[in-house]
Each structure stands twice: as structure tokens, then as C-alpha cells.
Design a protein that fits this description.
Helix content: 25-40%
Oligomer: single chain
Strand content: 15-25%
CATH superfamily of one domain: Immunoglobulins
Number of helices: 12
CATH class of one domain: Mainly Beta
CATH architecture of one domain: Sandwich
Largest sheet: 11 strands, mixed
Structural class: alpha/beta
Radius of gyration: 26 Å
């Protein structure tokens, strides 16, 4: 008997190793959603040269793994519905992925306002307890910051339930729920947001290194990388912590340092560790909420943000997929007097992206923020404004979806007439009849508060008795502006300025 077991052990070990050699990344698994009307890539790893077969819904695909063991097949489009099963087999092992639905897949990305969970939003208890949607499926990608390309992550798809939705992206869930209830198809939501992340962390390093516009930024990072000593920072912090303890723990404890090298600002860190494992997965589009971490470099963001979108599209190999993003909300204290604002300049950079790229859209939420909280709790309104873009542009639902936007101006005497497009049925002011939030300047570039009135469905007249020869107008140009102009359909006027005078962040290339 002992001899038999000794003979059998190598065979069992061989079978186990071979079974483990056939793998797929975590983006493929039970309960996943495949994109409808799409040739969906499916990939994984096996022994080099091994024959792989993938079967689903009556179609079968066979190929050999390459010299590294990597393989990829392309599924022909599958009808909406399910559940389906996918069988993946090699010469030595096989497994089945069960409960697969086919519908609409969206990536939910950005920084903390996208990552912000349902549990800490308005009406959280109601939202959580009513989240029984078996055809909405959720998956989250952990936060891994690295310069080394990652091909997989630790995560799994799940049904949308009160338990699973509680800590999922609130904007992602509210967006997906609207789609599901409107389209009546399964929805897959992939949450990869990382709080506090900078845009450059979402872009491959070689892309930034090859672009002369980011030479100063990358030189600065190379300098940091050459001298950064996290172990020394930890040693210093431990000393400070001990001193705090020995002193009776007065005041707040010293905060432990964060490792800049594995953090969410270092170029390519998030692209490598978070995004890359999902790149290529069949999906409809991306919703994005980020910008706070780049507000000190708003002029740079004018090019950096479009570069990020273009790079994602190129790497995904799925054409110019929809990319809908949230403009920064109002934040910090309201001010009575006009002034410069890095946040206003970042909003301007975000709006400019619609002029540079196709198939992008901006959800304006200048009325949804909270002055004392960078994480406003009203994520439902944010999601509603994002989903209008998707429903109108991608699913042909007839509704207004674009915020009114400045188009042109005419100056006559001391008055400026502004014309806007995308106003819906007409412009409208909230709370009071007078439009608020406008400032005006002559050629001395000193802005003062202006009076204004709506003079036509898409026109507003602006003036100040203190300025006889105006040359420029701004609207909602502040961190937290007092403004009240909407379309009659409830979409806020996009903050803007008519001038091109240098802002406070021009020339700022790194933190």
C-alpha cells in the first residue's frame, strides 16, 4: 500500500500543477456581465503551447497558448440575457464560469468622490435596504500602486444586494440602477476608483515620458524617486509617536507617513496596479469623477486629462468608447468678492475636454457641493446628470442631457449680451428672478459683481453701472460660487469666462 501511494503521489501532484496552470484573471468569474452587441475578449494563462478551448452559448473557440502561456479568444456577440455558462478547458484541466449575464458594462473610475460608498450618502438606509437587484452585478478592484504591470487583482463579481452595495461606489450604483430600470437589461459595474488619486497615476509612464509637455513633471518625480527613503520616514514617525505617548498623549497623534512610491500620485502607479488587469474587458463606457488632486495644476490638466482618455481608448482597443465625467462641485467657503480660483480653472479645463475629444460629456454639479465637505453626500443628483448623457447618447432616449454653455457675447455700451447653447426649452433662475453669479471687468482685468437679466430663451444681459466699457464676463468663477442659472429642465449653466487672461495655475507643472 505504501509503495502504491508513493507511486500515485507524483501523478496527483502533476495533475494538481497542471490544473493550476490554466488560469484566468479575476475580471472573469461567476456572476460576471458580458457586454452585449460586442465581440468580447476572454483571456488567461496556461502551459506554453497548450491547446485551450472556450465554449459558451453554442460557440466554441480553440487556440494554443503562446510561448509565455498567454492566450486570448474573442467571443462573438451574445444576446442580452442569461444566465449562461462558460467552459474553459486545456489538455489537462477545465473549469466552468457560471451565472453569466449579458447586458451593459460600465467602468466607474476616478478618485474619492467616485469611490464614496452608498453607506455614507443621503438616504443611505433607504438606498441600502432597497438594493435588491439580482441583474445588477458589482466588482471592485483593490488599490495597488506599483511601477510593475499587474495582470490580475484580488476581487470577484457579486449580485447587487443590501450587503454588497453598502460599500460600493454610490455614483456607480445609482448610475447603474437608473440604466437597469430604464433599459431593463443586466448591468455590470466595475469600480476601480482610488481616493486622492492624481490623473498622471492613471497614465502609463512611457506615455508621459515621451511627451515633452510633461518633462518637468517627470523630472520632478525622478528626483523624488532617487532620494526617497520611506524607511527613514517610518523611523522618524515611530520616534515622534513614542514621544507623544511618553508626553501623555496630548493632542492628536502624529500621522504615519504614506509611501510616495506606492501611492496614488506617482505616474503610472494606478494604471499598472489597478487599471491594467481589466484593460480589454468588453464594456460600454466609463464614468469618471476626479480633478481635486490636480486643481493646483489646472492649466496642465487641459492636456493631461484628454491624454489620459485617449490613452485608455488606445490601450482598450475598443474605439472611442463613451467617457462621461463630473465637473468639480462647489467647495470651501463662499466669498462675496470676485477673485481667482484654481478650482474654477480646473472646471474650465474639464469643459475644454469636450472641444478636444469626441464622445465625451461633462456633468455639471456646481450646485451640489458642500462648502465644508469635499465629499458631498448627494451622489444621486451626480449620477442622474451622468446617466442623462448615457441614456441620450448611447441608448437613444429622448431627453436633455447637456448643461447650457456659453456660446458668444456682444458688447453694446456698458452692457454685454451673452448667448448660450444647449439651453433646453429656456434658461431659468432658481429661487429668485435675477441671475446671480456674474462678474464683469474692463480692460484693467479687475472683476466686480454684475447685474444680469434673462432677455431671451438663450440670452442673458450683464452690466454694472461702475464699468462703462466692459470687455469680459465670468460666471460661477470661484471655489464655491453663488450662482443660480439653469435650463428649465434643471441642468445648471456651465461655469465659464469670456477672457483668456492668465490664471493662477498657469506654468505650475508639479506639486
Amino acid at each position: 500500500m505504501r509503495q502504491f501511494l508513493l507511486t500515485l503521489l507524483p501523478l496527483l501532484l502533476s495533475i494538481t500543477l497542471n490544473a493550476q496552470s490554466l488560469k484566468m484573471p479575476s475580471i472573469f468569474g461567476d456572476h460576471m456581465v458580458l457586454q452585449r452587441d460586442h465581440v468580447n475578449p476572454v483571456w488567461g494563462w496556461a502551459e506554453p503551447g497548450e491547446t485551450i478551448t472556450v465554449e459558451i452559448d453554442g460557440q466554441a473557440h480553440q487556440l494554443e497558448a503562446d510561448e509565455t502561456g498567454y492566450w486570448k479568444v474573442f467571443l462573438q456577440p451574445i444576446p442580452v440575457g442569461g444566465p449562461y455558462e462558460m467552459q474553459i478547458a486545456s489538455e489537462h484541466s477545465q473549469f466552468i464560469i457560471r451565472d453569466i449575464l449579458v447586458g451593459e458594462v460600465w467602468i466607474c473610475s476616478g478618485q474619492s468622490n467616485m469611490a464614496w460608498p452608498v453607506a455614507v450618502t443621503n438616504h443611505a438606509e433607504l438606498e441600502i435596504q432597497s438594493a435588491h437587484y439580482p441583474e445588477i452585478r458589482l466588482i471592485s478592484v483593490p488599490q495597488v500602486g506599483t511601477q510593475e504591470i499587474q495582470n490580475d487583482f484580488n476581487g470577484a463579481w457579486s449580485h447587487c444586494t443590501p450587503t454588497t452595495v453598502k460599500n460600493f461606489s454610490a455614483i456607480g450604483y445609482f448610475f447603474g440602477r437608473r440604466l437597469h430600470k430604464t433599459l431593463d437589461v443586466p448591468i455590470g459595474l466595475i469600480d476601480n476608483a482610488w481616493g486622492g488619486s492624481a490623473a498622471e497615476a492613471w497614465i502609463p509612464r512611457e506615455v508621459l515620458d515621451s511627451d515633452p509637455r510633461y518633462k518637468d513633471l517627470m523630472d520632478w518625480w525622478r528626483e523624488q524617486e532617487s532620494s526617497y527613503d520611506f524607511d527613514k520616514l517610518m523611523e522618524d514617525w515611530e520616534g515622534e509617536l513614542q514621544t507623544w505617548k511618553d508626553g501623555g498623549q496630548q493632542g492628536d497623534a502624529p500621522r504615519s507617513p504614506r509611501n510616495l512610491m506606492t501611492g496614488n500620485h506617482r505616474p503610472a502607479n494606478i494604471y499598472n496596479g489597478v487599471l491594467n488587469p481589466t484593460i480589454g474587458y468588453g464594456m460600454k463606457g466609463v464614468i469618471w469623477y476626479q480633478g481635486e488632486s490636480n486643481a493646483g495644476r489646472s492649466y496642465q490638466y487641459r492636456d493631461l486629462f484628454p491624454l489620459m482618455i485617449e490613452t485608455w481608448r488606445e490601450k482598450w482597443g475598443q474605439g472611442n468608447f463613451p467617457f462621461y465625467y463630473v465637473q468639480l462641485a462647489d467647495f470651501l467657503a463662499e466669498t462675496d468678492e470676485p477673485g481667482e480660483s484654481g478650482w474654477a480653472e480646473l472646471r474650465e479645463a474639464q469643459t475644454m475636454t469636450m472641444d478636444k475629444l469626441g464622445n465625451v460629456g461633462e456633468a455639471v454639479i456646481i450646485d451640489v457641493g458642500e462648502g465644508r465637505d469635499i465629499h458631498p453626500r448627494d451622489k444621486q443628483t451626480v449620477a442622474n446628470r451622468l446617466v442623462r448623457w448615457a441614456l441620450a447618447r448611447d441608448y437613444q432616449i429622448d431627453m436633455d442631457y447637456r448643461s447650457p454653455r456659453f456660446q458668444s457675447m456682444e458688447i453694446e455700451g456698458n452692457k454685454v449680451t451673452l448667448t448660450f447653447n444647449h439651453v433646453g426649452s429656456t434658461l431659468y433662475t432658481f429661487d429668485v428672478d435675477e441671475p446671480r453669479g456674474f462678474t464683469i471687468a474692463s480692460d484693467d482685468k479687475k472683476f466686480i459683481k454684475a447685474q444680469a437679466k434673462i432677455v431671451d430663451d438663450n440670452k442673458i444681459e450683464v452690466w454694472s453701472d461702475q464699468i462703462g466699457s466692459p470687455v469680459a464676463v465670468r460666471y460661477a468663477w470661484a471655489n464655491n460660487p453663488k450662482c443660480n442659472v439653469y435650463s428649465r429642465e434643471g441642468l445648471p449653466l456651465t461655469p465659464f469666462r469670456t477672457d483668456t487672461w492668465d490664471g493662477t495655475t498657469k506654468g505650475v507643472e508639479h506639486n
